[in-house]
Amino acid sequence: MSREVKFIAACGAGVNSSHQIKDAVEEEMRKRGYNVKVDAYMIKDVNEDLLSHYDGYLTIAKTDLSFKPKIPLIDAGAILYRIPAMAKPVYDNVEKVVKEINAK
Amino acid sequence: MNGIINFANSLFKPLIDMGAATIMLIVLTLIAVLFRVKFTKALEGGLKLAIAITAIGNVMNMLTTAFQKPMMQFVKHTGIHMDMQDMGWAPLATITWGSPYTLFYLLVLIILNVVLLVLNKTNTLDVDIFDVWHLAFDGLFCVYVGAPLWLSTLLVLFIGTMKIINSDLMKPTFNDLLDAPEGNPMTTTHMNYMMNPIIMVFNKFFDKCLPWLDKFDFDSTKLNEKIGFWGSRFAIGVYLGVFVSLLAGNNFATEQGWKDMFTLSFIGGSCIELFSVIGSWFIASVEPLSQGIADFATKKFSGRTFNIGLDWPFLAGRSEIWAAANVLAPIMMLEAMVLPGNRLMPLGGIIAMGVTPALLVVTRGKIIRMIIIGTVELPIFLWAGTMVGPFVTNMAHSVGAAIPAHTLVSDTTMEGPVEKFLAYLVGNAWKQQGMFIVYALIALTVYLLLFIWYAKQMKKRNAEYAAAKKAN
After folding, report:
1. Domain Phosphotransferase system EIIB component type 2/3: where (chain A) (predicted)?
2. Can you give the residue range of the structural domain that contains A82?
3. pTM, two decimal places
4. How many domains in chain A?
5. Taking CB atoms and an 8 Å limit, are A16 and B221 in contact across chains?
């Protein structure tokens, strides 16, 4: 299997929306044959140092940050609608990032 | 309805004697299967709920046992009557989901949502199944106070209807706050936004009398960055251990005094962290059911586009929510100490996530207003939290949490404080009758009128949004 690609997801308490995104992305990427891990955090705990340990940041909607992130931001909010057709573009975007990282 | 429940009780008595975790394992699994969830997925959810209920009971036990004695000494030493422990939202959510009646209220609210959609009274399909616990909590509290189930169900429907209508009213504001395109379906029926009408009153006051205050708004991202880990959950748990030990009069001339303080602090920090870990199991447990209900509803309404009701944190990217919560934490601590009638010692709920999202929506990110209005409304949360303490403790015991005798638990910043007072008045109107009937009717009327006024204000706001878009 290819190397593990790590994403971060964040929401209010770091337990509900971010976990939904984590579970959905990990499962879909496994189905597509990638090795992806997502960690869930509280948005208030996200900082530059934390993001430096990840390959991408799965946001829910517009997210205020006090710095310019060096990793790609992917809007993953559509996963929360629980309608597969709406979540698909998110997975495609994640896959693109994963492919780029695997190609490195 | 009570007849049916009595019959069900006699049938299920042996099951009920197995305890809350076992009951919920079976009930949640069965209901998920009813919504066509695959059996293994449904069982996975049921098991996760059972272990979450068990684990939260044990952690509550660990926390309350450690803090019980120092807090009694704190009260004796300072004369401040703060003897009720603040668990934050996760334990309250878990124990509320530990009652089968929560699933009853869930089904009632799903039917309500479907009816409102069919009648075109709303455009919101609520898929935030987990957060049904806020309203279920009010229904259960109403029953605890003395109302029969049908009356509590009416109250839940009354508030539930406004909650769904509110999600439509707020939708254009969400698009504005998120810079989202018109087609974005994100909205929410979350209970914390039922404070909007009251916040709107204060916001009007600012518009009319204190508009110059907005000049002092500051950059929230910068503040949050400076606070860093000092505002994190575990750090707050540690401060509270230190604070309680100091005011409990630990003898710091002895090694034991220091040791007790450190032990208490680390238990505080670790329990707060554990609560959120267990909270995530518990939310995962409702996940298969949520997906099942969403699949079911989207199939029934195929071809229609909805706004989709989510948990509130799609707004959590707005840093004002966290800046206001950071500033309000020490303010709440001070208020808790001087507020007459408050018995809650802030801990688990001190990061006021149940308070600040509504402030953001009504003020649209004016941070100074958020902080001032937050300061003014926090006492309502503290009083409501104190009032429901005996009920929460009772419920915790019934799911098997071994909280020591004479110790009460609650939450300082639980969403929907006003609705708890409504539940209290409605429950007493049934049980004690007399003047309580009058009070309950007055309170319900004022609540409704205030919401209607708020709806009018929001419609004005939404018309402005529509006009601005046209102009572009």
Report:
1. 8-99
2. 5-103
3. 0.86
4. 1
5. no
